[in-house]
Structure formats: C-alpha cells, structure tokens
Write a structure and sequence with these properties.
The chain is an alpha/beta fold. About 45% of the residues lie in helices and about 15% in strands. The chain has one domain (about 5-220): Rossmann fold (3-Layer(aba) Sandwich). The protein has helices at about 10-25, 35-45, 55-65, 95-120, 140-160, 175-185, 185-190, 200-205, and strands at about 5, 25-30, 50, 70-75, 125-130, 165-170, 210-215. The chain is globular and about 50 Å long.
Length: about 220
C-alpha cells in the first residue's frame, strides 16, 4: 500500500489532503502540534498519528523511524510569525529565526531523515509554498522569506535527487486559521476552502510531472 507522511495534518490543507489521500487508498502517518485535533483526525481516517513539532529533532527522528518505506512526504506544517504582520523594519529577529526553524529547517530535517525511505520507493516530496515567496506584499516579508528559502531548498533538492520527485506548490489563499490570523476573519472567510485544493494535489502526485514550482492554476 502507498504510504504518505503529512505534516500540519490536524486542520486546513494538511487535513484536507489527508482525507483525499485516504479516500484514494493511501496509508497515512499524520503529524501536527495540536494533539487533540490530530488524534481525532487520525481516528476518523484510520491513520497513524505522532503529535509533535517538526522543529524538534527528536520528533523528526520518531517520524522517520515510523516510515521505513515512504512514497510521499508532504511538508505542509508552517508558522505565520508575529501577528499582526510586522513590517521588516520592525520585525523581531528572534521571531524570524524561530520561523525559519519551523518553515525551512524543520522541513529539510524531515526530508534528510526520510530520504532513504523515499529513495527506496522512488517516492515524491511536496513542499507547500506561497505566493508570498515571490511577491512583495507589505507585512509578509518574514513569512515570505521563509517560503522563498523553502522554494530554493526544493529546487536544489530536485537537482540532487533525480530518483525522488520534488514539487513546491503555491496553493493560493485558502480559508484557514493562518490566513484569518494574518488578514482577519472577514477577509479570510471569502477565500476558497482547503478542500478545493486537495484534488489538484492528488493529480500532481498521480501525474508525476517534472520537478518544479506549481500554483493552483497550474494544476487544474
């Protein structure tokens, strides 16, 4: 059975993708910081779950040990940073360092730990990016910088690991708690739900195109 590991799987896009993969017959290992929501989601989907923080090396090691063979890694877990979103001139540097740990170092650590399992199955990696990685939105400098770094990590990884498919995906705005924290409940409420993006990600994995950066529009 195909095995997927999804981070940030207790809500939002991670949960929507977990539901879609489970319906498609995948075996799932889910992780997120929110233990109660994570265990509830795992129970509903018949999935395994290991709660924890991807920025914690011990947690990364536990996840890798749990998937000696792996077909798909989805690095979806992400932090927003301080809210309301500060301008770069005022950005707390300790917060920025912590955000890089969560959004860049943590995903790379998990990639490093699971690469042997992914190579064994000629698996795939999906790193969830953002348009803030490539656009200059006021207030999004810290978060955008981490996603730009994750994009380049993905780009180089794709060149270094020809037997593992690597895609970095900008799913666009979605009706999530993170977006609400950034722009407010009212504006976030007008965005499409994460469930609208999950089918496109499944098509990406099934079609196995060449490595690269994809937006939701590319995957229609």
């Amino acid at each position: 059975m195909r095995q997927a590991l999804i981070t940030g799987a207790s809500r939002g896009l991670g949960l929507a993708l977990a539901k879609a993969l489970a319906a498609d017959g995948w075996s799932l290992l889910l992780t997120a910081r929110g233990e109660e929501d994570l265990m509830s989601a795992a129970f509903d989907l018949g999935a395994r779950a290991i709660p924890g923080d991807v920025a914690d090396p011990a947690h990364v090691a536990r996840l890798a040990e749990a998937v000696p063979e792996l077909d798909l890694l989805v690095n979806n877990a992400s932090g927003l940073g301080p809210a309301p979103l500060p301008r770069l001139a005022d950005y707390p540097l300790d917060s920025l360092r912590a955000l890089f740990e969560t959004n860049v170092v943590g995903p790379l650590a998990l990639i490093q730990a699971t690469l042997p399992a992914l190579r064994k199955r000629q698996g795939a990696i999906v790193n969830i990016s953002s348009d803030a990685a490539v656009e200059a939105y006021e207030g999004w400098g810290g978060y955008g910088a981490t996603k730009a770094a994750l994009d380049q990590v993905s780009n180089v990884l794709a060149a270094e690991e020809p037997d593992v498919a690597v895609w970095w995906v900008d799913p666009g705005e979605m009706r999530t708690r993170m977006l609400a924290d950034a722009v407010g409940e009212e504006e976030a409420g007008t965005a499409p739900p994460p469930e609208s993006v999950a089918p496109a990600l499944l098509r990406l994995v099934a079609g196995r195109p060449a490595p690269g950066r994809f937006t939701r529009g590319d995957l229609r």
